[in-house]
Amino acid sequence: MIGRLAWRRPSGQPAPPFGDHPAQLEAWPPAPGQKCSFPPATGFRYDSTVSTQEPNARVVAFSRSALGTLEIIGLVVISLATLVAAGQEVLKMVVAREVTLADLLLLFIYLEVLAMVGVYLESGALPIRMPLYIAMVALARHLILDLKHLGPWDIIATSTGVLIIAIAVLAIRFGHIRYPYALSKGDEQSEHKVQ
Description:
The chain has 4 helices and 4 strands. It has helices at 57-96, 101-123, 129-145, 152-178; strands at residues 4-7, 44-47, 125-126, 193-194.
């Protein structure tokens, strides 16, 4: 609760017989011969003394624990799905008795996903460059697999996409080296950093 509205009776006036309720008469006691009726709600002001600015430590601890557990479950699901997909790809290569460059690139993508999960588990950091590497390999694999079916503009567009991602990786690396992150007050305790 951030704060509470509180009704304050003007000092020196007696309390109304029905209590300090926000919907009371503006002036108490009523003038002689005047009937008691409830006016529109007036006389309210923000009471900052009731405000609780500090979060409940137990709620914060439970939330962190629950989110940490959900992260671990999600990472385990991603890892298992990646291992199953890699196993299926290896099985296809064994059955076909043939290994192509597209198969190797797909296995490389699976390894990059597993490496990304490992980095996240080890450091608690979200590696931004790794998904970009995966996207570059996926576009290269797309070019290799569908080269016969792609038109010249499709090839140019896909190649331009790889080039743009490569430039983005270089820009991110340059930014991290030239303009490193300044440690703020909460960075020592923060579990989620961006690399």
